[in-house]
Design brief:
By secondary structure, the protein is mainly α. The chain is 68% helix and 0% strand. The model has no long low-confidence stretch (mean pLDDT 87). This is CopG family transcriptional regulator.
Length: 93
């Protein structure tokens, strides 16, 4: 089952905002050159893709860290390895 954050990200009509970034000209030139090779219509789409990839990676790391910290806290409170293992398997699907 998809979590709420992912469901919101997949929605086609989610709100957007405009931002301003100061990026070196040579970086923008490189993005423009690479975009069509990666199948993107323009450099801004490629840039959004890079941001999304990094964000998903960091969110996964943070989620894994959160699960590990929770597991350690439960161990300190006497929850057995067996119960923790069962719970983690249940979470995995």
């Amino acid at each position: 089952m998809l979590n709420e954050t992912l469901k919101k990200r997949l929605a086609k009509d989610r709100p957007v905002t405009s931002i301003t970034l100061r990026i070196p000209v040579d970086v923008v030139d490189s993005l423009k050159a690479i975009a069509p090779h990666k199948g993107f219509s323009g450099y801004q789409t490629l840039l959004k893709s890079y941001i999304s990839e990094g964000l998903r990676r960091d969110e996964a790391i943070h989620a894994d860290d959160l699960v590990e910290r929770l597991t350690q806290a439960l161990k300190k409170r006497g929850v057995s390895e067996k119960v923790l293992g069962e719970a983690l398997r249940d979470m995995a699907g």
